C-alpha cells in the first residue's frame, strides 16, 4: 500500500473517540421546572431496590437501547419511564457537552423543560423520590471539592521486562475531582454534580 492510498482513505474519515464502540453509552436529562414563578431543577433519589448506587441522587436517564434513535431519544424515553409522564410534557430539549467518563463511559446530557410537575408519578422500582432545587440557590452555592487519588497496580504477570525501568517504573499517581452540593438534607455528588456544575457554567447560572 502506498502513502497516497493511506492518506486518501484517512481523508474520508470523521475523527471521533478511539474505541468508542466499546464504550457504554447513556444519556440524562436535566429537567427544568417552574415552581411559583421560579426556575428549579428536578433531581431523583435512586430507589433502594436498585443494585447499582441505591439512594444516590441523579438526573433522569440511563443506558441507550438499540431502539433509541439517538442519545436525545434515550434521555427523553428514560425520563418518561422514570417520572411516569408523557412525551409531550417534555419540551425544548437541548444538548450540552457530553462526558467521557472513567471506566469507558460516555454520558450525553440534555436540558429540557417539564411542563406540569403535578402529573409526575415516579416509577417506584427506580425512583425513591424526587425533589427540586431552585437555580437561584445553585447560582450562589459553590460546590465543595475533594480529590480522589488513583493508584496504578499492574497485574501479577505484567511484563516489566518490556518497559524501561522494569519493576521500578515511576507510575504517576493520578487523581480526579469530586464535587459535592448540599441542599437541605440532600447531597448531590459524583457525575451528577459534575454535569450540574458544567450546566450552571454553560447556561451562565453561576455567580461571578
UniProtKB/TrEMBL annotation:
Pfam families: NUDIX. The keyword Signal does not apply. InterPro entries: CoAse, NUDIX_hydrolase-like_dom_sf, NUDIX_hydrolase_dom. The keyword Acyltransferase does not apply. Residues 23-154 form the Nudix hydrolase domain. Its cofactor is Mn(2+); Mg(2+). One of its GO terms (molecular function) is metal ion binding. Keywords: Hydrolase, Magnesium, Manganese, Metal-binding. This is CoA pyrophosphatase.
Amino acid at each position: 500500500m502506498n502513502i497516497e492510498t493511506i492518506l486518501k482513505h484517512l481523508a474520508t474519515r470523521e475523527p471521533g473517540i478511539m474505541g468508542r464502540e466499546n464504550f457504554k453509552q447513556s444519556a440524562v436529562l436535566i429537567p427544568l421546572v417552574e415552581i411559583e414563578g421560579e426556575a428549579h431543577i428536578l433531581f431523583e433519589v435512586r430507589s433502594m431496590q436498585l443494585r447499582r448506587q441505591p439512594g444516590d441522587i441523579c438526573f433522569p436517564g440511563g443506558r441507550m437501547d438499540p431502539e433509541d434513535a439517538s442519545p436525545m431519544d434515550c434521555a427523553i424515553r428514560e425520563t418518561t419511564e422514570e417520572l411516569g409522564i408523557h412525551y409531550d410534557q417534555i419540551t425544548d430539549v437541548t444538548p450540552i457537552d457530553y462526558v467521557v467518563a472513567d471506566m469507558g463511559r460516555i454520558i450525553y446530557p440534555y436540558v429540557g423543560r417539564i411542563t406540569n410537575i403535578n402529573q409526575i408519578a415516579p416509577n417506584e422500582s427506580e425512583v425513591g423520590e424526587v425533589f427540586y432545587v431552585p437555580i437561584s440557590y445553585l447560582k450562589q452555592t459553590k460546590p465543595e471539592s475533594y480529590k480522589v487519588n488513583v493508584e496504578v497496580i499492574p497485574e501479577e504477570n505484567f511484563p516489566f521486562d518490556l518497559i524501561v525501568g522494569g519493576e521500578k517504573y515511576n507510575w504517576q499517581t493520578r487523581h480526579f475531582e469530586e464535587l459535592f452540593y448540599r441542599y437541605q438534607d440532600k447531597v448531590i455528588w459524583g457525575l451528577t454534580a459534575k454535569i450540574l456544575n458544567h450546566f450552571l457554567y454553560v447556561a451562565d447560572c453561576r455567580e461571578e
